[in-house]
Amino acid sequence: MAGGGQEQGQGRAGGWRGNDAILSLMLPAFLLGLGRGFAVPVLPLLAMEFGANASRAGLTVFIPMLGAVCSTLPAGYLMDRVGRRKLLIFSTLLMSVSTLLVLRAQSYAEMLAYLGVSGAAQQIWQMSRLTVIADSGAQNQRGRMITGMAGVNRGGIMAGPVLGGIVAEFFGLRAPFLLFGIAAFLATIPAYLLVRETAPAVLAKRAGGAAAPKVDVSWGRLITRPALTLFAAQFMANVGRGGAQGQGGIYVIFAAYAYGLGAGALGGVSSAMGVVSIPVTLMAGQVMDRFGRKRTVVPASALLGVGLWMMAGVAWGGLGLPFFIGGFVVINLAVSFMAGSMQTLGADVAPPEARGKFFGVNRLVAEAGSMGNPGVFIVGTAAIAGAGGFAAAFGTMGGFAVAASLMVALLLRETLGKDRPPR
Q: N- to C-terminal Cα distance for the chain?
């Protein structure tokens, strides 16, 4: 009976790799990216409307990441027990409700609370879809599958800010959250209709087999030396790139406060960065599956550090908007080339029988690093007034990114199977 469950899982995985993949996971990825993009240009302006300074405005990036951190371990636990599909559906519904509630927020604290719940929902969805890919895809296809998802998501993020900025100009700063809520709800539909369960324990239970062999999923087996190295590198890389992945977050806050840009201009700059990022992200998947994961992580993380140090120079020198855009382009190129690489490394390292549990810890570490990105920004701008605070924050993030590049280059062995030396 256990074997029948495995065959059932394989058959379903094969179906997922077919035409259903576009509608069941890639379409939701686009819709959720579009929704996130709608909100990018208005968050710093809403913070200003509530009277927040640049340091407090950083909470609009920090709080969703805090929600993501808090959701990682419970989501990983539930994925292995109740299944990936239920969490995919639940997360998009929760995201829709929480973003729609921003429309009625009466205080800055209330708005931040709703953003925190939305961040948790985003993380649950991301973990669930990543685990489905890891369950279903061959090792030499994971890079393309994961970066394909990332590229589609970036397509939505690319289109969202300029549309959100236009909507905000005509209908008010909160109107983009209505569009975000609708997009998240629409993302629920293909997941409900087309996604099939891939969790081994759930499939075995459905098959009715009590004879499924027990597998060691203890922490001793999960937390190996390669896993610890991966966790440390991912933490440092995410302090550099943050959860906004270069197209929003602290960069938009800096542009709003340093250059006084409005919703339309902020949306246009963020969307323009998306045009740069999509082809680079898709190319990164090809490189990962053909030449290895380290071929993308090492140079991309080093370039990210350089871009952040450039941004520190822009802030310190009070340079004009063209210099900011130049640094922004470098950061986006680096983040785009790194997109999906750490997740692919995690999928390679994770044991198949406990991927939910493993990804729970993996994403906890990753999101803690992402939360450190606006955290450094908040501390830097609060502790040092004016341009010095911005420069210190960007410079510190750049140091973390370079450290991640060195750690992966020197301490982590290539995980693509064909590149591993024979045992």
A: 34
The domain segmentation of the chain, as residue ranges, is: 2-204+222-417
Note the CATH number of domain 2-204+222-417: 1.20.1250.20
Helix (H) or strand (E) holding 160: helix 142-171
Show Cβ contacts of residue 308 under 8 Å, excluding neighbours closer than 6 positions.
240, 331, 394, 395, 397, 398, 401
pTM as predicted: 0.69
* Tens-level pLDDT at each residue, the chain (423 residues): 333 333 333 333 333 444 565 677 788 888 998 998 898 889 889 999 999 888 888 898 889 989 988 998 888 888 878 888 889 999 999 999 999 999 999 999 999 999 999 999 998 998 888 788 777 765 566 666 777 777 777 777 777 888 888 999 999 999 999 999 999 999 999 888 888 887 777 777 777 654 445 555 566 667 778 788 888 998 999 998 875 554 567 888 888 888 988 888 887 877 776 666 777 777 877 788 788 888 888 999 999 999 999 999 999 999 999 999 888 888 888 888 887 778 778 777 777 667 777 878 888 888 888 888 888 998 998 889 888 999 999 999 999 999 999 999 998 888 776 434 333
